[in-house]
Structures are given as structure tokens and as C-alpha cells.
Amino acid sequence: MSVVPYLLCSDIDAEVEWLTKAFGFTLRHRSENDEGRAVHAELAAGEGTVMLGYPGEDFRNPAAIGHPTQMQLVTVGDVDAHYETAVAAGARVVAELTDRDYGRSYGAADPEGHQWYFVAGTS
User: Fold this and answer.
1) In whole angstroms, what is the distance from residue 38 CA to residue 30 CA?
2) Which is it for the CA torsion 62, 67, 70, 72, positive or negative?
3) 23 with 86: CB under 8 angstroms?
4) Structure-model confidence comparison of residues 62 and 44, the more confident one
5) Which residues contact 18 (CB under 8 A, 6 or more apart)?
6) Pairing of strands 103-109, 6-8
7) Boundaries of each VOC domain copy (predicted)?
8) In the chain, at which end, N or C, are there fewer CB atoms within 10 A of the end residue's CB?
9) For residue range 69-109, what is the model confidence (pLDDT) as tens digits?
10) Residue 46: its pLDDT value, please?
11) In whole angstroms, what is the distance from residue 89 CA to residue 13 CA?
12) pLDDT-based confidence at 122, cuts 50/70/90?
């Protein structure tokens, strides 16, 4: 069994660009409508997958509504290096990098307002 988060986004192309730069994901697939706007994307995150979708003009992402609607937890090999890369890319840190009872971790929000938590482990 596996779980694949499917996040709704106002601007999939901008989100893909940011997630690949800040968090190290890679684009696997992109679908667009007749006008060339991305309506779906699939990103590789280590052995995992994250999908992005565009639900239409009436959609309001977590940044627009002012609070997170979900959180994603991702294990990475070197959480300290991952943190430095994310911060350099402009990630808004929502939980500082520190040792917790479940491991060394931090949390960051992407430009759409989705919250991501990264914990040391095998990526």
C-alpha cells in the first residue's frame, strides 16, 4: 500500500518550479489544457510521488485562505542540508530545524501555503 498526496494549486507550473528548486522533487509528468495551462503534474520525491492539480478559477489555496489545510511529512537523508536548500530558495519556515522525539526535523510552507515537514531518515 502507498499513499500519494494530491495537492490543489492555483499555479501548477510555478509550484513545480518552486518544489523542484526548494525541496529537490523532480517532474515526472505534466498535463495541460487547450490553452497550455498546466492542469495536472506528477512529481517524484525519492521513492514517493506527489501530484498537483488545478481545480479552476474559484479555487483558493491555503495561502489565500490564511491557514494550512493539510501537512505533508517527508523523510530525507540529510535534513540539515535539505533545510539550507529550502531556506535559500525562499521557503517560509514554520517549524525551525531542531531535534524532536521523532527525529531531527523542520517545517516549511511553499508559495501556495501547503505545509511540508521534513524529518531525517532514509529518502
Assistant:
1) 7
2) positive
3) yes
4) 44
5) 89, 110, 111
6) unpaired
7) 1-121
8) N
9) 899 999 999 999 999 999 999 999 999 999 999 899 999 99
10) 86
11) 16
12) low
Residue 39 scores a pLDDT above 90: yes
Residue 56 confidence (pLDDT) above 90: no
3-class secondary structure, 19: helix
Confirm if 85 and 118 have CB atoms less than 8 A apart: no
What is the residue extent of each domain of the chain? Answer: 6-57+67-120
Contacts of 80 (CB under 8 A, 6+ apart): 97, 104
**Residue ranges of the alpha helices (H) in 24-117?**
62-65, 79-88
Structural class in CATH, domain 6-57+67-120: alpha beta
Q: What does the block give as the cell for 22? A: 526548494
So what's the pLDDT on residue 40?
Answer: 97
Question: Distance between CA 98 and CA 122 in Å, rounded?
Answer: 18
Copy the grid coordinates of residue 27.
517532474
Please, which residues have CB within 8 angstroms of residue 81's CB and are 6 or more apart in sequence? Answer: none
* 123 — pLDDT class (breaks 50, 70, 90): low
